[in-house]
Amino acid sequence: MSLRDSLGRVATDLRVSLTDRCNLRCSYCMPAEGLAWLPREEILTDDEVVRLVRIAVTRLGVNEVRLTGGEPTVRPRLVDIVARLADLRPRPQLSMTTNGTSLVRMAPALRAAGLDRVNVSLDTLRNDRYLALTHRDRLGDAQAGLAAAAATGMAPVKVNAVLVRGVNDDEAASLLRWCLQRGYFLRFIEQMPLDPQHSWDRGAMVTGAEILARLRSEFTLSLLPGRGSAPAELFTVDGGWGTVGVIGSVTAPFCAACDRVRLTADGQVRSCLFAREETDLRTPMRAGADDAQLAALWARAVRGKRAGHGIDGPAFVQPARPMSAIGG
User: Fold this and answer.
1) What superfamily would CATH give domain 13-326?
2) Which letter does DSSP use for residue 44 in this model?
3) Where are the domains of the chain?
4) Model pTM greater than 0.85?
């Protein structure tokens, strides 16, 4: 059995949200006062997370697992969860998307437990802008976390950046230069309609084309062929070893080659980041469903995956859950 949809796409990359909570308040993700968190009894337990990932890996063909949030490092016993997932056979590739503020403390233990790599969200190099974007004075912690991850041997260490018009959209080149100097791989991501306020404005979004134009004013970029199912278009920089990626989820969607599926912190399967439908695995699991039954439910959920997210279509409706509750 595999996670094959009706269009022949096969999901092998599982994004597992461990929590909807976060220690930052990024303006494009959640309001400064935070959100109403999921009740703790609705969150999957450690055993339930491991069981569902095991089913995905051993029965459904998943070979990459990315831990997300919210902010995954606020999840209790995160290191133990990583170790248990690394013990699965066949062993999946394990990565994590994080804001990096806890990595100075946690990176060595996470690496020892089996975490292969990290993506760290970092949108600015200026303290005042970081504070304005996140409502927390943690830029130094995030930068130190990146260095700590690299020091453990996690590779590649990637940086995810969202440019917000009128806030940090003049930092594309400086962010790239900073990452190249430190051996990090930078990926710019278009701001997506996943904010809880539902105030996203396509016209205010900094597009992938704009980002490339700003980079090309200071660097020579050459497109790398063979993108496959990767979300980012990759470019070499000035003919050297370094690369930069642009994820144009809105203006240049990669839906036709998408190989992702998501599991929310409360045990719901989402076949697309922008899906408005979910399939509940937590309730049948807690009611006694066996692994085969859960795998069948999961496969059925993916079979109904839509052809694309349809953001530019007149019928597009933003999903009710914000990004922090879905998991990147």
Assistant:
1) Aldolase class I (3.20.20.70)
2) P
3) 13-326
4) yes
